[in-house]
Amino acid sequence: MNQKLSIAPEVFTYMEKVTGADGVEVIVNLPKEKIEKINDICHSFDNDPRELINVLHETQHTFGYLPAEVQDVIAHNLTLPVAHVYGVVTFYSFFTMIPKGEHPISVCTGTACYVRGAEKVLDEFRKELDIKVGETTPDGRFSINCLRCVGACGLAPVVLVGEKVYGRVSPDGVKSILEEYKK
Amino acid sequence: MITLTIDKKKVEVEKGTTILKAARKVGIEIPTLCHFELCDMGIENKPGGCRICVVEVEGRRNLAPSCMTQAEEGMVIKTHNIRVLNARTTVLKLIISDHPFDCLVCAKSGQCELQHLATQFGIRSLPYEGEQSHYRKDTSPSIIRDVDKCIMCRRCEMMCNEVQTVGALSAVNRGFMSVVAPAFEMNLEDSPCTYCGQCVSVCPTGALTEVDHTNDIIRALTDPTKTVVVQTAPAVRAALGEEFGLEPGTLVTGKMVAALRELGFDYVFDTDFSADLTIMEEGTELLQRIRGHLAGDPDVRLPILTSCCPGWVNFFEHNFPDLLDVPSTAKSPQQMFGAIAKSYFADKIGVKRKEMIVVSIMPCLAKKYECQRDEFKVDGNPDVDFSISTRELAAFIKKANIDFLNLPEEDFDDPLGESTGAGVIFGNTGGVIEAACRTAYELHTGKKLERVAFTELRGMEGIRSATVDFDGLPLNIGIAHGLGNARKLLDDVRSGQSVYHAIEIMACPGGCIGGGGQPYHHGNSEILSRRAAAIYSEDERKSIRKSHENPSIIRLYEEYLGEPGSHKAHSLLHTEYFPKTNGVTVHLQS
Fold first, then answer.
1. Residue A9 has pLDDT above 80, yes or no
2. Of B135, B183, B589, which is closest to A25 when you measure between CB atoms?
3. Which ranges of B344-389 would DSSP assign to H, the alpha helix?
4. Strand extents, DSSP E, B240-318
């Protein structure tokens, strides 16, 4: 229940000085290129706090996930409390603070897929990879997520691995899907 | 204007008025829970989340939340028919179904708005069984978060973000899992929280409460080897009576002193004394900096900012680490008192530092944190051992079975109990700078100040400014209360646009009288203005109204400190500030 999100213990590999849009000079535990990339994204939205969701979308698209450090830099650029940024990140299931796997698996649990056995397919993926929904395998290869309807209900139940769509997946077919990526 | 009918009563209101306010206009009080308002301060919370205030609007299919629905021409509204009452009761039962049932031992019991509604609605059974949400308890030096008791009204979030612009709290996660928490769900202690306690002062339930030190004090009072000294802040005497059923604005100074003696404190002293001492130090620093500025000294930084408020000190350490040389270096009155009590006074009565316990009664929760700061300790022994709030003192007096209302009026002990009117007004927004002006004027001009009350510095507007004439030297004074207002003045200082010579800042709306440790005002802003008026009336009653005329202060300098700003005064009465981090990963540069 409401477990505290585990944040990796801070390792101060990078100690970059940046001046946020709020005029405060800060030291951030991120490589310089990454900070510059985030700054570019924020600037492309004029550092407008009302554009937070778009900034988060763009940043997650670039980095794959939104770790605490990244949220902190965004908060400074948009002059928002970082608690608020974290609030938005945790509200929308699309945003994630955990890096996705090299091959992110998305199981559709929308109505059509659900009634055609998506739950069992999901269970099979969980069993095979030994991780929960929202987690990534220790080797970073796979992660499992649920999504709601990709608009291909005729193919239910639907599974996505990366951008590739698999239709009419049965629990028995899970192993062979994973085999494709284990090479 | 719009005319509508509420419970068969015709009411005329301006366009844009909510049904809730229109109903109040004709004396119909619709129950609310998440809604919160401090009208005079322009503070309002209406997320429309709890649905306790629903009413029936004729012609509409669904019940409407009255706090958010605007009145319209010709509306016919029923605020308490059976459909409405049933809906409210169901809503309340659902809220309670995810709330602990430990009212008997809850710190908020008796003051809890949820408990109050349950009583008002006559809830006698709880039909909804199921899972309750649980979250770890978070204890900081000042504030306890017990999120299990949170009803997601978002009042604290509104206070923390919109009013104070501290940004420590936000609603995080979703649905059943949602909680109000700092970023990354870290502890309050690691967040940019200033401990101003305004979240506690508006929380309807026991989700946010103060850390209670009453038992530590009882332990000290029953220890025969300890000499226990107590100091009481100015704002406490103007609010303590409310806890005993007295009208807001009733001064209970004498009874409070008697109660503290009854409780067993060896010496009952007054923070007003050290407020006078603060003026001596801060006023001197103010004059030095202004004179240096006028002489063209490039190293002198203006404006000078007051530093009496520990919530404000925390705020600028977190948010303006580049401006740490702007505030006065003078310690707060609480800490000045502790430093003098454990040196000057301890020597006087022949008690060793370790054998003396200094307790403070404060309208404030940030004071609990302040007295634990390392720079206010000597060899690990704090200048002030424990700080308790006005509320905790009231509870302590009740626990000790003291008949407060029938106590005699008693006087503070000497010498740290003697104070002037200037010390008293520290409790109000504008009071510190007014007290400073009274002393600085006479020190600067060498003339007697005829008009003691600087009424131009008083009032309840969030940001005020006035020019005070120091016999030909016009001083621009800025005043802000509420940290959001303070931020505006500080942004100007940072960008070099500030026009002020001196700025007074208090973290809480209204100043200390509206502090996070005061009796709950439940959104009634008239209570705050009555407390403010009480403080000013105490000032008027005093025969001495300027800090530098306080005989005990004069003696303290003669016998012990020398001059204001002397080496000894500096080591005992001045402090320094430290830059603080503002998140788990971003580290502010000093």
1. no
2. B589
3. 346-349, 366-370
4. 267-270, 304-305
pTM of the full predicted structure? 0.90
Confidence of residue B51 (pLDDT cuts 50, 70, 90): very high
Which pLDDT belongs to residue A5?
Answer: 32
Give a yes or no: residue A5 inside a domain: no
Q: For A77-103, how does the pLDDT look when each residue is reduced to its tens digit (9 = 90+)?
A: 898 999 999 999 999 878 888 888 889
Burial of B212: CB neighbours in 10 Å, binned 0-12, 13-18, 19+: middle
Residue A20: the pLDDT is 56
Reading phi first (left if > 0) and then psi (alpha if -120 to 50, else beta), residue B7 is in: left
What is the separation, in whole angstroms, between the first and last Cα of chain A?
A: 37
- Mark which residues 72-131 of A lie under 8 Å from B by CB: 72-73, 75-76, 80-87, 90-91, 93
Domain's final residue, options A60, A91, A122: A91
Distance, in Å, from the CA atom of B228 to the CA atom of B260, rounded to the nearest integer, reads 11
Mutate to test the interface with B, among A29, A34, A82, A96 (most CBs of B within 10 A): A82
- Largest Cα separation within chain B, whole Å, is 80
| Beta carbons of B135 and A1 less than 8 Å apart | yes
Q: What is the mean pLDDT of residues B333-361?
A: 97
**Which positions ≥6 away from B577 have C-beta within 8 Å?**
B313, B316, B317, B324, B327
Q: Does residue B59 surpass a pLDDT of 50? A: yes
A66/A23 same-domain check: yes
Q: Does residue B89 sit within a domain?
A: no
Asked if residue A55 lies in contact with residue A70, where contact means CB atoms within 8 angstroms, the answer is no
Regarding whether B223 and B129 lie in a shared domain, the answer is no
In which domain, by residue range, is B275 found?
214-573
Domain boundary among A91, A120, A137: A91
> The tokens of B214 are what?
């009453």
Q: Which among B41-50, B298-307, B425-434, B469-478 has the top mean pLDDT?
A: B425-434
| Count of other CB atoms within 10 angstroms of residue B384 | 27
What is the mean predicted confidence (pLDDT) over B465-485?
A: 94
- The reported pLDDT for the residue numbered A179 is 93
Catalytic positions of B, written as ranges: 282, 285, 308, 328, 367, 370, 375, 512
* Distance, CA of B263 to CA of B390 (rounded, Å): 15
Evaluate whether residue B134 is within a structural domain: yes
* Residues ≥6 apart with Cβ < 8 Å to B85: none
Comparing CB atoms, the residue among A1, A69, A87 nearest residue B585 is A69
B493, containing H or E segment: helix B483-494
SS3 content of chain B, % helix, strand, coil (to 5): 40, 15, 40
Main-chain phi, psi angles of B171, to 5 degrees: -75, 130
- pLDDT value at position A163? 85
Query: Exposed, middle or buried, B567 (CB in 10 Å: 0-12/13-18/19+)?
Result: exposed
- ipTM at complex level: 0.89
**Which bin fits B16, alpha (ψ -120 to 50), beta or left (φ > 0)?**
left
